[in-house]
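Data deposition worksheet. Section B asks for the primary sequence of the deposited chain exactly as it was used as input, without tags or linkers unless they were present during the calculation. Section C holds the resulting structure in token form. Section D is free text for depositor observations; keep each observation to a single sentence. Incomplete worksheets are returned to the depositor.
Section A, Depositor: J.P.
Section B:
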Amino acid sequence: MRLFIYGTLLDEALRVAVAGAGGQLVDAVLPGYGVRPLSDSVVPIVQVDPQGTAVGKLWGGISADQAARLALYEGIYDYRLIDVTVTLADGTPAAAQMWVPPQDAAAGDGSWSLAHWQTHYAKASVLAAQELFAMDPLPSLSDLAWQFPMMQKRAWGQVQASQTATPASLRYTPDAGDVAVTHRKAPVGSFFRLQGFGVEHRRFDGGRQGPLPREVFVGIEAVIVLPYDPVTERVVLVEQLRMGALIRNDPNPWILEPVAGMIDAFEEPETAALRETKEEAGLDVTLRKVSGCYPSPGNATDFFHCYVGLADIPDTDQWSGGLAAEHEDLRLHVVSLDRALELVASGEMNVAPGVMLIYWLALHRAALRVEFSGGIAS
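Section C:
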């Protein structure tokens, strides 16, 4: 198989993560086509453009196993193979195949830049591909359609974590080699994942410990938003059935909590927070960052970006929210901050990020009242 590649597969790390090493690459171009960004995405598409020339590589010597892996990866985006004739650097024509997007794929503005993609998105894309092809057996294409977005979200979270400032005015500041992950096993699970591994680390007394067998729930980055009207001092609480409480055998698994949602791959936390608040509660808010925190760092990678969402809350007690496409069945309650504090004290509000945000509001209510005494600007 000979393949003309023009987009993310030009990145060697991603190409190896998807198809493994092997084959020969030479410079090639495809006149009559242009490479554009897919609308609302970071991936490229190639489209017929009589004035354009797609620049890429001719990848020859692709094995049957590599071709199968490529078909699975490209199938995520419903790409298909077509026959093309490319031009090599010496002007020689060469027959090849090329992955192209669905006919209804819409291009975004401008040209797609490999350098820009490599700077901002390559690390997460490689991590997601590595997770996919570490699975044994590999998933079917139909299963991968709903599994791969979660892989991308997990990968994006890992990249974001690696770039996060880590203050250490009180806690220990690690040096290289102070902690090492060993015997990393392939994660198990379809939507969420559980991973076993070994860990060896420096002790506080200067000695070493491990390797110790451990397991973690490999989760995602999420946003938590508590809508709050600083003029009327009312909050919005979301009520819904939660699986963790159900499987724990909680007599009442209908939970009161803030707005909450996963951060999509390549999405900034603030963008996700505004989107989720609009989707779940129908509210446009001004975000006030409260904290970024691990809800359970002993056994999970989950990391929450927590906000108060300042809003002009409607004069009503209750309404329905959520997206039918995501099977959300939500009931929104408007209560006073004092009532929310009573719910915390009684244990009826028992979601940790919600408790934290309600207490934060209790500490800052007076200052917010003064700040917004003239109302919330629309």
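Section D:
Residues 3-112 form a domain with the Hypothetical upf0131 protein ytfp fold (CATH 3.10.490.10).
The chain has three domains: 3-112, 179-218, 221-371.
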